[in-house]
Amino acid sequence: AYTPTITAGTGTFTTVSATGKYYIFGKTCILNMIVDITAAGTATGFMSATLPFTSAGRIQIGGYGMEVNVTGSMLKGYIPASSTALQVTTYTNATTIGSGFSNILTVVYEIA
Questions:
Q1: Looking at the predicted structure, is the pLDDT value of residue 59 above 70?
Q2: Torsion of CA 33, 39, 42, 46, to 10 degrees
């Protein structure tokens, strides 16, 4: 288990919490993450969540999920090269940040 740190592309959250569990198979990390946004505050844009391990040196599309409380939007996660964070948006590149949103993600990526 681990607790991801959640930040926004712009602004800050008033109240956000996250939990995660991961499994390691060789150099592959598989993790499940739940991010609950109680109060979005001034947060907008993409949501960023820290990973338990730095990704390998290549750009990766690593996560897929759904916002389950408000919009039902499908989510995608992008891991920049050699990063320790996952950037999350919807498939239409809209924000996945809003008060009352609950984002559930599954992420698979190669660790460094």
A1: no
A2: 20
